[in-house]
Design a protein that fits this description.
It is a single chain. The protein is an alpha/beta fold. It is built from eight helices and five strands; from the N terminus they run E-H-E-H-H-H-E-H-E-H-H-E-H. It has one domain: 3-Layer(aba) Sandwich (Rossmann fold), CATH 3.40.50. The chain has a five-stranded parallel sheet with strand order 2-3-1-4-5, sandwiched between helices. The longest helix has 24 residues.
């Protein structure tokens, strides 16, 4: 069983590593952004509710994200494991996830924090070339991350469920480190 939570700031490489590990372990890579896009495309009830926020450029509220995660974790393909990429984003979501996993008779194996210096994060995000990736926006996103998501690291650390990985290295080097401590 491989049930992993990947945490870290924007640009830390969570998604890239989640795809690699998911492929190696034969488990789904679950990204909240991807779930939102799929639900909206399928025009499911949750997708239609989420769409009303996304269309206005607003953040989708926690309760809706939590419903989407609950729905996704109940799919057949998650029975042998999963990787949550960038979720939970705050301590409330972490507590909800614990309750949800208990209901599903599951438990996260470990939360992995991708530790990356701000300088490297800014360089990576600027290199992506996305229109919303300018230095001012990136700096703000990192500030929001520290305010809202960094306490989640403490939440898992207190429970001895946090493993940090040096994300300043190349994709290949980070993957080698992950494979080593995940025994993949």
């Amino acid at each position: 069983m491989t049930r992993l939570i990947f945490l870290g700031p924007p640009g830390a490489g969570k998604g890239t590593q989640a795809q690699q590990v998911a492929e190696l372990a034969g488990i789904p890579h679950i990204s909240t952004g991807e779930i939102l896009r799929e639900a909206i495309a399928e025009q499911s009830d949750l997708g239609q509710r989420a769409s009303s926020y996304v269309d206005k450029g607003e953040l989708v509220p926690d309760d809706l994200i939590l419903d989407l995660i609950k729905d996704r974790l109940s799919h057949e393909d998650t029975q042998s494991g999963w990787i949550l990429d960038g979720f939970p984003r705050n301590v409330n979501q972490a507590q909800f996830l614990d309750q949800l996993l208990a209901q599903l008779n599951q438990q996260a194996d470990i939360a992995v924090n991708f530790a990356v210096t701000d300088q490297v994060l800014i360089e990576r995000m600027l290199a992506r070339g996305r229109k919303d990736d300018n230095e001012e926006t990136i700096t703000r996103r990192l500030q929001v991350y520290r305010e809202q998501t960094a306490p989640v690291l403490h939440y898992y650390e207190e429970r001895n469920e946090l493993q940090s990985v040096d994300g300043d290295r190349s994709v290949e080097e980070v993957t080698v480190s992950l494979r080593a401590f995940l025994n993949l």
